[in-house]
Write a structure and sequence with these properties.
By secondary structure, the chain is α+β, with helices and mostly antiparallel strands. The chain contains 7 helices and 4 strands; from the N terminus they run H-H-H-H-H-E-H-E-E-H-E. 56% of the residues lie in helices and 13% in strands. A 4-stranded antiparallel β-sheet has the order 2-3-1-4.
Length: 196
């Protein structure tokens, strides 16, 4: 019984940690706090955490759905508890859904948060386009806090981040030239850094 509880709890914790690189910056920015670099540091272990979560879920499913009772060597078998077994299976399936949700969270968060934002303004005569290299963006959900941080810089008309390339495209008002130190300060507050 204890092994079943630990495998279920462990799999949910591992899945939550695996996507912390994406939900932690969003949560801290939403609360008005800096995300720091801890969330980005977790990204390199994302697949390890998801693998451990999947392994723990596999053990949980094995323990809950295996045939036969856990009988002692002398032939004494514990009494069957169908209600407890059903409850264990329901909790296991809920945990499996939670693990899957944490696994796809970065992609869902990016699509959801991007849906309400306007796209970057097109180039025109009264604007300048600058491309920056930003460190710490590891997934699509990281693009949103980076864009929000740089959009608050005076003179920035539009921002479009791409985590895949690590680049951020800024559309600046004509004549605007935000300093690197100001942009780096805004990015650092969100847990990222300007590489240029």
């Amino acid at each position: 019984m204890r092994a079943r509880v630990w495998t279920v709890a462990g799999s949910v914790v591992m899945a939550a940690v695996s996507s912390a690189c994406c939900w932690l910056p969003l949560a801290t920015v939403g609360l008005g706090l800096g995300a720091g670099g801890a969330a980005a540091a977790l990204d390199r272990y994302r697949w390890l955490f998801l693998g451990v979560a999947a392994a723990l879920l596999s053990v949980g499913f094995h323990l809950n759905y295996r045939r036969g009772a856990d009988c002692a060597p002398d032939g004494n078998c514990p009494p069957r508890r169908p209600l407890l077994q059903s409850l264990n299976r329901v909790v296991l399936w809920i945990s499996a859904v939670l693990v899957a949700s944490f696994a796809v969270f970065p992609e869902i968060a990016s699509v959801t948060l991007r849906g309400s934002r306007p796209s970057a303004a097109s180039s025109s005569l009264d604007s300048t386009i600058v491309v920056l290299q930003v460190g710490g963006m590891s997934c699509a959900a990281c693009e949103v806090p980076v864009e929000q941080a740089l959009a608050s810089v005076r003179g920035v008309r539009a921002v479009r981040a791409d985590a895949g390339s690590g680049q951020v495209k800024l559309t600046l008002e004509h004549g605007a030239a935000p300093s690197d130190s100001l942009m780096n300060e805004k990015l650092a507050a969100a847990g990222y850094r300007l590489l240029r």
